[in-house]
Amino acid sequence: RVAAEVYGLTGQDRVYQGMTIAFDFSVEEIWVPWMAGATLVPKPAGAALVGEELHDYLRAQDITGLCCVPTLLATLTDDLPNLRFLLVSGEACPQDLISRWHRHGRRFLNVYGPTEATVTATWTTLDPGRPVTIGTPLPTYSVVILDPESAQPVPRGHVGEICIGGIALSPGYVHRPDLTEKAFIPDRVGVPHNPSGRLYRTGDLGRIDADGNIEYLGRIDLQVKIRGYRIELTEIESVLMQHPGIATAVVEPYRPQPDVVELAAYYCRRQDGAAVETREALALLRDRLPGYMVPSYLVELDRMPMLPSDKVDRKKLPPPQPQDRLTAAVEYVPPEGPAEEELARLLGEVMHLDRVGATSHFFDDLGSDSLIMARFCARVREHPELGQPVMQDVYRHPSIRDLAAVLEESRQPAGAPVTTSGAAVGTSRAPHRVGTAQYIAIGTAQALTFAALTSLSAFVFIVLFDWLTEAADWVGALARSVGMAAAMLAFLSLLPVAAKWLLVGRTRVEEIPVWGLRYYRYWVVRWLLDLSPARLAAGTPVFLWYLRLLGARVGRNTIIHGNTIPAYPDLLSVGHNVVIGPGTVFGCYRVDTGVIRSGPVTVGDRAFVGAHGVLDIDTEVGPGAQLAHASSLAPGQRVPEGEVWHGTPAEPTTDTYRHVPEVAPRPWRGIVFGLWVIITPVLLSAPLFTVVWIVLHSFPVIGGPLMGAEQLPWDAWPYNALVLAASLALIPVGIVTGLMWVFTIPRLINRLVTPGRVYPLYGLGYVAARMVMRMTNARFGQLFGDSNYITGYLS
Hints:
alpha/beta
């Protein structure tokens, strides 16, 4: 009764009844027209009518109303002028079908609903100018979108499971309490118009758009996963049906092998249409779909196998044959020479192709993917005479002819330098190995060095601390705290410099076996450099001074945002007016085959190196050149003067990464800012040390033992209990204080920065942006990493 009032059927309509009563949709087709007083015209006895036969019968019977599934409607190639009412359901309706059948004065409806909710629960009118949805609930129904796992409502616009409530909800499944309990859940949401107090979980994905309409997004349990992507087959079918010669189309997954999943598309030609050119269909699919959704096979059928419900019987679709592959439409160029012929044969075996053209593109023409090509490379490497291809070679040279040529160039006599994708990677050699005794000896030396340097640092701290505790009052303690912090800063900064020049001297291009004496000396220097407080001055001239102090050559008006200190600083050469982004690594050494190999890294004048890149040994960014963000130069690579490169390993590009206009440098600003960055830890540490002095003098139970006034046994409970309580209290207090700081201070400072404005280095805007970046990206945030709390923290 509700549907009859909403749909708009009248007593003058003649509605076709062609569905079997085994199909729940027949309830809609039979009872709604009768409730509206319309005439029901049953199909003639015999098989179901489709295509031209159905069209002729509808015209002969003067049918004005039709209820059907979209697949059946797609078999009708000609319009029905007398058709006033058209309702589709049972499947997702393709946009192309709406464009074909929408007419002025024709009421075109899309309805949705499962058997468990008495066939139909939502409805909407269809229009080519609007996205396809399943509309809104019919009166007496309610729909809510729940999270499939937690069964809790999702926010509007988010994807979830469509759940239905209302007076017409089924009691459950006959003699199947297990299925009933799984599919019919208690209504804990409290949706309106739901006297049953339950919700039916449809198993369909959907979301509610901004207009309040429900978008149907397919089945949760019937989505197809191809190459790691989840695919809705109806999207591909809709694109195929946009071809003028295709009346109906179905796409199904096909497994030529147990571990290989491909897509097979089946179609029926229009009655008056010409033959469908495979190349045209392939061009249409590639134009409208991403590569992973383009079917591998295109099969023409005279007639779709149908179920009694007029849906396609997908189980009876014939398996595609080799000649049905879309790659058959690609122009075939025979391979030339033994190498091309063998590569083509191997790829044909991997992809189950009768033949592979020499110029056919692996991905665009043959429909391959990374998994298939990885198998192909493995097969090729079984034949040493063909070469040793890697995936990067396949991506750079995606045809048999191009790949054969590059593999021919890479085949060199044994012992000669090997080149892969244009980047030298060293010389083939046996790995360097050391005996167990030497390994243990160096490991022991490292452990002893760690203990010795830690003890030395502790000794310096204790000497300074004793000096602090001797202050007469808090004013003197504050002054001594400043001196203590400054001394510790100088000690930790200058110790690596002294160790570098005393233990290593001037670094040079060399090879050092791992776990040897020279390796041990370099390890000590590298470890101390990683602990140096001078890294705090990254992005300022003070950091450049520190690099020069270690032996690096760095020009004027250069900025290195990252805090990398190369282990071989003498091999680093950076020109004038250079910008190197944060996170870029240039250690001037690499480790392979058990040997440390050092090499120069050169960055020319006015060059730009993006963030989070890698400059390996023996690399150069020429004057005025650019290296993109997250890009790398492999050993031996050089970016010529003025060129722009990107990628890993980098290659030429036409992009540019200089998006900020130049501002006249003000060197004094950088010097002041750099010194301020270095002094800041001192200024922050001094009050803390002063507070320690006050606590020690205010609480003798703590200060006495520490300052030597009295000696307590190790198990003196007042002292240990107080220290334990203070330790336990400081941890949560520190976390809460840190969170409050991060959640408030950066927001206030960020108001000093205007988006889109260019600020000079080391000015107020730069300082504000740097402070926000440093505080919000502090290691403290890693406390929430890999957990659900990280989203709240970022918000």
